[in-house]
Amino acid sequence: MPSGKMPRFAGIPSLLRLPVVESMDSVPACDVLLCGVPFDGGSTFRPGARFGPRAVREASGLARRFSAALGIDIYEELRVADGGDIAVMPYDIERALHTIAERAEALARSGVIGGFVGGDQTISLGVLRGIHRAKLRPVGLIHIDSHSNSSGPALGRDIHHGSVFKNAVEEGLVRPDCTIQVGIRGPYSNAECLAFALSHGFEVVNIDEVKWDLHAVISQVRKVASRGPIYLSIDISAADPAYAPGVGVPLPGGMTSWELQQILRALVGADIVAFDMVEIAPQHDPAGITAQLGVCVLQEVLSAIADTRRSVRPASSARSDSRRGQRVSP
Questions:
Q1: 68 contact partners, CB below 8 Å, separation of at least 6
Q2: What is the pTM of this model?
Q3: Are strands 174-184 and 203-206 parallel, antiparallel or unpaired?
Q4: Is the domain covering 29-312 a CATH 3.40.800.10 domain?
């Protein structure tokens, strides 16, 4: 509903104020479908990310369609909708991952880019499984986070939010030679915390590199993005707790919101097959600034995808249906 007809603080909340299409039995005719994944059964410290999708919807009142940085109107290039929440089982990780994988597979087979709003990082494994079933090949990975999430079992459980990308490599879901992790920082439990990532060829870019030479890091991200289809995963804890206090495992010394924006804008031109944004735990942030940053992240990713579509589309074949069915905020 345009803000000229309905005030931004009124109406029924949806992701980025988009139209809601909640049917899980079909895939709507759109370019990108944003799906909430309210699951935090893989959290090892502070739970609460199951409330992340709802918090992002509440924070979406100020979502806007035009990127001044890229000079693009998202909804002139993309048909985007809120696909509702995936009905995940809160107390059964494997069943939850199966449900997530089914939805991710259906979107990938239809050619729709799935954007999954978590939930904890465990949901990434479900999405990657679904993409692999649809495309039958591993994809590259751009992972923006404070943690590598490539560790082993924790508290007797093999799959949790800290082991997702170790499992993804072992299951053949991602290409280790086309994987970059950005913003990683300590302190670590021991010297071996990054051993799996480094021994398997992950390009690990720590937070000091981001702070000392952001331009070089952007070049690294672009290089990985040019190697083929990419899965993008953004853990909001990549940002410093000053900008994102509502996360499961807060670590001081992270990115500013602006640094995170710059890295996401470097994704113009990337072949993003799906993406997620995870680990917003709103009850740890009474002011709601973490969810506001989540809205910003979604807008930046959609802007990059829209700009990519614009750059590869011949000027003579401008889409005539770019606004069809769109009821988004101006």
A1: none
A2: 0.92
A3: parallel
A4: yes
